[in-house]
Design brief:
Helix content of chain A: 10-25%
Largest sheet of chain A: 6 strands, mixed
CATH topology of the largest domain in chain B: Alpha-Beta Plaits
CATH topology of the domain at 1-91 and 153-261 and 580-667 in chain A: Dimethylsulfoxide Reductase, domain 2
Structural class of chain A: alpha/beta
Number of helices of chain A: 26
InterPro entries (chain B): 4Fe4S_Fe-S-bd, 4Fe4S_Fe_S_CS, FDH_Electron_Transfer_Unit, Formate_DH_Fe-S_su
Number of helices of chain B: 8
Strand content of chain A: 5-15%
Mean pLDDT of chain A: 95
Number of strands of chain A: 31
CATH class of the domain at 1-91 and 153-261 and 580-667 in chain A: Alpha Beta
Main location (chain B): other
CATH class of the largest domain in chain B: Alpha Beta
Number of domains of chain B: 2
Binding site for [4Fe-4S] cluster 3 (chain B): 116, 119, 124, 158
Radius of gyration of chain B: 23 Å
Strand order of the largest sheet of chain B: 8-1-10-9
Binding site for [4Fe-4S] cluster 2 (chain B): 26, 196, 199, 211
Shape of chain B: globular
CATH superfamily of the domain at 1-91 and 153-261 and 580-667 in chain A: Dimethylsulfoxide Reductase, domain 2
Low-confidence stretches of chain B: 85-101, 169-182
Shape of chain A: globular
Protein name (chain B): Formate dehydrogenase O beta subunit
Helix content of chain B: 25-40%
Order of helices and strands of chain B: EHEHEHEEHEEHHEHEEH
CATH architecture of the domain at 1-91 and 153-261 and 580-667 in chain A: 3-Layer(aba) Sandwich
Oligomer: heterodimer
Strand content of chain B: 15-25%
Chain lengths: 880, 313
């Protein structure tokens, strides 16, 4: 980021939520870069931005789509990069129909399941027909249920092979480029003005700045956070930025890219080595019943051996993982103990599990490193669900609300729950803090940084490693001698970590296992390319191989300034292969020469016959830029010298996604699940493939055009402040942080304050179809009333750090109680950034009157569990 | 031992992101308790309000509309013509950045981390009757809590309102046996005057003060006072060259009423906007004149008495 000429921060509030990482933005600014912050609020990021642009929450695809249209129609895109490195020239199937042809939907929509059959989106096959996946096309309903979008954390989806039709003149009507051009033609500056509330002047300023800061000599970088992910079409928000960045040649070069600003110290680590229901380490999918019944079906579906790049070796990564977990019990004869892995039988994300819990289908629950009573959407549903459990284990630093809701939660006060009626047995286990344990954090840049233990944890507090190791030891002791085959996976686990000086498992031994080793002599592997699929090597997470190269903890490197080079290569370790910039072959042109002196990074050296530069090249190091092997060779051999996107099945950056997304091959703007605004782009109002949990404890507000929409007339958005950490478990118990933001508040514009009689410093009650909460009022010009389609739209800002309890230094109502659970079908992430509410002056009712207030709003709006659940808005216009 | 050079801060508010890490790091290092009553002030994101006995760094948040911004630019431009560092292009190896003056934005949000000024002529130090206040070898001004008798003279002696007596306090985050987490041991050093020590204990170990060390954007810089003043002058010239005439320095003028301050600031508006006095003056500045006048008066009285006696004879 420090090398960018222009930084666009959007869908995030980097200075406030990532103040330490923001030093790189500060450095870029000091070097003369521009930074534009596009956000519904004027935040601490806007305060130091070159320019702040106010946008209506949830309309980002319109704005970014407008930029794409602007760059294409004014021929401002980076032509040579686009032709050489992206799939712009690739031909799409004859059967594909765009939203332009179908009134707002793509071809393949199935109104029965509310999901797409993506088969018509595929590339055209030179041999006729389409290029499908290695095991055919998976229907969107099944892909969505396992949140398959998460699999692409380290590369694209598989294709059966990499032979495609290309027209590098970009003129063929079925080239991706022409499809893209038609698709975004309706995203005009006027549409941006009417849907986003952004003036044409401001739009043109941003377009001009990006265009001037892209191309051979300059690069533009994007940064986003949960302001993009937490929407019913969140993945498509990011896709729109990816399309724009590829068009402008801003991927794989210094100061380019799209930075996912991760929200916690190691949230990147927790997707790499996942805490998600649907993933195994290194972005291998969790097997599903029916789809992955045999080992062969499973490995074939992850990556085809005929596709290009390093996902063609998926089987190697699977074998190494199974070998690391089950050691000698994993053999070629038993398919490396593949059948020890559990199988998914449907969507088991946090929200479906909560619904099942509430319905009595879940007995026990571990709450670790989270505070769902405060931090999850629809908090009341969360707490009522936990009240149905037999047992609940909470491991945390403090006695968080998720551990005390049974005695001091909002439902106890309202009388909905009585402590003596709750049968849940709650265990609280004190957790060690980050200074009381050693281990690694993986941050936004995919960098692992090792922390050493400073002090022993106090009292009974334990690290996660110690806790789970001991839990495993105890369970295995209980099962010892069992002959039941269902106990084999536990009994055969490699569970032999050497103890440290305090008798706890040595965290470096775990890192060595993750890194991988030769089975015979435990010699550490230094690169994932050394992994074998024959059981002679084992490794817990293939993308992390190299972090323990030479038997040395590479993540613990801490040479000041990273050693002085531009890549700061002696600080920490970056996956994969300690590569600081991904896809960096794209930093050189088709012939392997730097695009410009100013942005030189990796380049081909004819004399040495290899790629050279300050980084580890993200490409076969000795592959000539003019190499044009037969793509059917597959794997790294199949990559052409101009295929920089080595984790994509065809080696190209995808402007158009023929496969992998379940809600469309191109981004299209739809309104949030709850919105007071009609979609002016298409007849389709909401994201058609969004995931809903239609239940009486998760009601939805009517949207624009439906009766009752004016009962919840305002848009609210939730967010974080610098002073607190997420649901407050680490900050509301610290007096130093608590005093800096002591009370829950809402931020409103002076116009809304006048409309509802709110005064600065006074109280307001915010009502949604799920809950009503109270907050102190900040009336501020930082929140703007926006003119959308000729009508004023008011937005309400709500930080979500406070919760109702009695143990923290500061407490308050939880903003997330207001949210419903409506989710993105690719990722199963909830829409927390846009929802509908009403605001009234004064404090909320107490006791049973609180639920009466919520119910009276629901009645006035005519809300039922069916409200807002229609998949197709206007079947006639949309061809059904 | 050789006298080390005078140390100080340069706080560049133009790159402050208001994260308040300086406030927290200061409290943690100095074991200062929480203060305030844990209520929202309604003053933008400022819930600390001012410097005090337990708050030695304070971040101010000021929200301004177009008119206030235009006024700040105009008043800044007037200062430039009054002999503030002149407008000139900054030396830079970066390809020519766009230096066209930005349009006056519709809105801005100023953030500024305030701290003890460690004045060249320190009023607090001058008036302290017990010798609890002293000037360190680093040219900073520090209170010795074990010497202070809590008389409070220094509180009135500070032209910036920095010094305060700690009358009460509540909590500091530590974990002790017998204490609930978040609930704290008794507050130390009650009743005595307190203020920033410029981390005297850290300076002795050649360490950067906690606030500067933690600042993620280098808004708070620490170093030799002369080089701090020099970089402050460079920075203000750079901003002027970009058309930001609202930028001005505070405390960098050794001819001001306190002889210049050890902590210099780059501000983007009049000092009053940030709650700083526009023309601070050490309370003892007038002592010589006062002594002179008192002397004249005394001489007059002596003379009058003498005359009275002489006449009475």
């Amino acid at each position: 980021m420090a090398n960018a000429d222009c930084i666009i921060l959007m869908g995030g509030n980097m200075a406030e939520a990532h103040p330490v990482g923001f030093q790189w933005v500060s450095e870029a600014l000091a070097k003369g870069a521009k930074m534009i912050h596009v956000d519904p609020r004027f935040t601490r990021t806007s305060a130091v931005a070159t320019k702040h642009v106010s946008i209506r929450a949830g309309s980002d695809v319109v704005f970014l789509g407008g930029l794409i249209n602007h760059m294409i129609s004014n021929e401002l895109y980076f032509h040579d990069y686009v032709v050489a490195f992206t799939n712009a020239a690739t031909l799409v199937s004859e059967d594909f129909r765009d939203t332009e042809d179908l009134g707002g939907l793509f071809s393949g929509f199935d109104p029965e399941t509310g999901k797409y059959d993506p088969s018509t989106w595929a590339y055209a096959d030179p041999a006729g027909g389409t290029v499908t996946g290695p095991s055919g096309e998976e229907h969107g309903a099944s892909a969505s249920a396992r949140a398959a979008g998460h699999e692409y954390g380290s590369g694209g989806p598989p294709l059966e092979h990499a032979s495609v039709l290309r027209d590098e003149t970009l003129q063929h009507p079925r080239t991706v480029f022409q499809v893209l051009k038609r698709h975004f033609s309706r995203y005009t500056p006027e549409m941006v003005r009417d849907m986003c509330g952004i003036s044409i002047d401001d739009f043109e300023y941003v377009a001009r700045t990006i265009a001037e800061s892209s191309g051979r000599e300059r690069t533009t970088c994007f940064g986003y956070a949960t302001g993009w992910t937490q929407h019913t079409l969140g993945a498509q928000f990011i896709r729109t930025a990816a399309v724009l960045q590829l068009l402008m040649g801003n991927v794989g070069r210094p100061g380019s890219g799209i930075m996912a600003l991760r929200g916690h110290a190691s949230i990147q680590g927790s997707t790499d080595i996942p805490t998600l229901f649907n993933l195994l380490p290194g972005y291998l999918p969790m097997p599903s019943v029916g789809r992955h019944d045999s080992y062969r079906e499973y490995v074939d579906s992850i990556g085809s051996k005929q596709q290009k790049g390093y996902w063609a070796y998926a089987e190697t990564y699977v074998v190494n993982l199974l070998k690391a977990w089950w050691g000698e019990a994993a053999t070629a004869e038993n398919d490396w103990a593949y059948d020890y892995l559990p199988r998914l039988s449907g969507a088991h994300g946090t929200y479906q599990t909560t619904a099942d819990m509430r319905d009595g289908k879940v007995e026990g629950y571990f709450v670790l490193g989270q505070n769902p009573a405060v931090g999850s959407a629809n908090g009341r549903q969360q707490r009522l669900a936990m009240a149905q459990l037999k047992w609940l284990v909470v491991r945390d630093l403090n006695m968080i609300e998720s551990a005390t809701w049974w005695k001091d939660g909002p439902e106890i006060e309202s009388g909905e729950l009585r402590t003596e009626d709750i049968a849940t047995e709650v265990f609280f286990m004190p957790a060690a803090t980050h200074v009381e344990k050693a281990g690694s954090f993986t941050q936004t840049q995919r960098m692992l940084q090792w922390r050493h233990q400073a002090v022993q944890p106090p009292g009974q507090a334990q690290s996660e490693l110690d806790f789970f190791h001991e839990l495993g030891v105890r369970i295995r002791a209980r099962l010892a001698g069992s002959t039941d085959p269902r106990d084999r996976p536990l009994l055969d686990l490699t569970w032999d970590y050497p103890p440290d000086a305090h008798g706890n498992p040595d965290p470096e031994a775990v890192l060595a296992e993750i890194n991988g080793y030769v089975v015979d002599d435990r010699a550490p592997l230094s690169a994932y390319t050394e992994m074998k699929a024959d059981g002679t090597t084992a490794g817990g997470c293939w993308i992390y191989t190299g972090v323990y190269a030479d038997g040395r903890n590479q993540a613990a490197r801490r040479v000041p300034q990273g050693g002085g080079g531009v890549t700061q290569s002696e600080w920490g370790w970056v996956w994969p292969a300690d590569r600081r910039i991904l896809y960096n072959r794209a930093s050189a042109d088709r012939d392997g020469k730097p695009w410009s002196e100013r942005k030189a990074y990796m380049s081909w050296d004819d004399a040495q016959g290899r790629w050279v530069g300050p980084d580890n090249v993200d490409f076969p190091v000795d592959k000539h830029p003019h190499a044009r092997p037969d793509p059917s060779l597959g794997g790294a051999e199949g990559l052409a010298g101009d295929d920089p996107f080595v984790m994509q099945a065809d080696g190209k950056g995808w402007l158009y996604t023929p496969k992998g997304l379940v809600d469309g091959p191109l981004p299209a703007h739809y309104e949030a699940a709850e919105s007071p605004v009609r979609n002016a782009l298409y007849a389709q109002q909401q994201a058609p493939a969004r995931v809903l949990l239609a239940r009486s404890d998760n009601m939805e507000a009517p949207s624009a055009g439906e009766p009752g929409a004016d009962v919840y007339p305002y848009v609210f958005t939730t967010y974080r402040l610098t002073e607190h950490h997420t649901a407050g478990g680490m900050s509301r118990w610290s007096p130093y942080l608590a005093e800096l933001q002591p009370e829950m508040f809402c931020e409103v514009s002076p116009e809304l304050a006048a409309e509802r009689g709110l005064v600065n410093g006074g109280w307001a009650t915010i009502v949604s179809p799920r809950a009503a909460i109270e907050a102190r009022v900040l009336v501020t010009d930082r929140i703007r009333s926006l003119t959308i389609n000729g009508r004023e739209v008011q937005q309400v800002g709500l930080p979500y750090h406070w919760g109702v309890g009695s143990d923290a230094v500061v407490t308050g109502d939880a903003a997330n109680d207001l949210l419903g659970v409506m989710m993105d079908p690719n990722t199963q992430i909830q829409e927390s950034k846009v929802a509908s509410c009403d605001v009234i002056a004064g404090r909320r009712p107490r006791g049973a009157d609180l639920q009466r207030l919520v119910a009276s709003y629901q009645q006035r709006a005519g809300t039922t569990p069916e409200t807002g659940t229609r998949a197709v808005t206007d079947p006639e216009k949309e061809g059904f | 031992m050789e006298q080390p050079p005078r140390k100080g801060f340069f706080t560049d508010t133009s790159i402050c992101i208001g994260c308040k890490a300086c406030e927290v790091a200061c409290k943690e290092w100095n074991h200062n308790p929480r203060d305030g009553d844990l209520e929202l002030t309604g003053m933008s994101y400022d819930n600390t309000v001012s410097l005090g006995a337990s708050t030695w760094r304070h971040v101010a948040f000021v929200e301004q509309g177009r008119d206030a911004i235009a006024a700040a630019r105009t008043s800044g431009r007037a200062l430039v013509s009054l002999g503030m560092p002149s407008v000139g292009a900054p030396a830079s190896a970066v390809p020519a950045p766009d230096v066209a003056p930005p349009d006056t934005p519709e809105f801005r949000w100023l953030m500024a981390s305030d701290v003890c000024k460690h004045c060249t002529h320190a009023g607090c130090l001058d008036v302290c009757p017990t010798g609890a206040l002293f000037r360190t070898e680093f040219g900073t001004v520090v209170i010795q809590p074990d010497v202070c008798n809590g008389c409070g003279t220094c509180v009135a002696g500070c032209p910036f309102g920095v010094v305060e007596r700690r009358s009460d306090g509540t909590a500091a985050p530590t974990y002790r046996e017998g204490h609930r987490k978040g609930e704290q041991p008794p507050v130390p050093k009650r009743g005595v005057a307190q203020k920033c020590t410029l981390c005297y204990d850290r300076l002795l170990d050649d360490e950067t003060p906690a606030c500067a060390k933690t600042c993620p954007t280098t808004s708070i810089k620490f170093g030799d006072h002369t080089s701090m003043v020099a970089s402050a002058r460079e920075r203000v010239a750079e901003l002027h060259a970009q058309g930001m005439t609202e930028a001005r320095l505070y405390g960098a003028n050794e001819l001001d009423g306190v002889g210049g301050t050890g902590s210099v600031f780059l501000l983007l508006d009049e000092p009053e906007v940030y709650g700083l006095p526009p023309d601070p003056r050490v309370c003892t500045a007038d002592l010589p004149t006062m002594y002179k006048r008192a002397g004249v008066a005394m001489a007059g009285m002596v003379a009058a008495a003498a005359v009275a006696f002489w006449k009475g004879r």
